[in-house]
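Appendix C. Worked example: Cysteine-rich repeat secretory protein 38
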Amino acid sequence: MISPPIHFFLLTFALLTTLINPHSIHNFCEPTNYYSTPSSTYKTNLNLLFSSLILNTPKTGFSTAIEGEPPYHVYGLALCHGDIHHDACTSCLNTASENIVRLCPYPNGGIVWYNNCGVRYSIHNFFSQFPTVKDFFNMCQQSGASKPFEFEQLVISLMESISEIAAFNAK
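Step 2, the predicted output written as structure tokens:
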């Protein structure tokens, strides 16, 4: 039987190796329950949103934006890894904004993550909301977890272990 510290290390290593893969892409699309096809006004607002995020994010590594008026408003957020050059950030955001529309064809919203950046957009204001563990599991299930229930249990166990270590070993 593997000891708990080794188990913790192996699980952490396995999760990190999937994140380090330069070709990995993770995405999650919001369920289609509002729009079934985007209007030209919404498409224009979405393009303006991505342009704003691509322009402003490389300056600080993070930005949010809102474009349009109800019912065609769209909220967006973009971030880049802190240790990459602003040109690499811009390139990553360009790729992400192009792919998120292809990966999430219905305009309710979506999230896409690459190694160096991430983009999220939605018809709902998500700025004051933190993604839930359920959102994370939904994303993992979409990307092909072969045993989602077992994966969920491992992640919960890992998070509980990390929480205990952080809470009781603070310096």
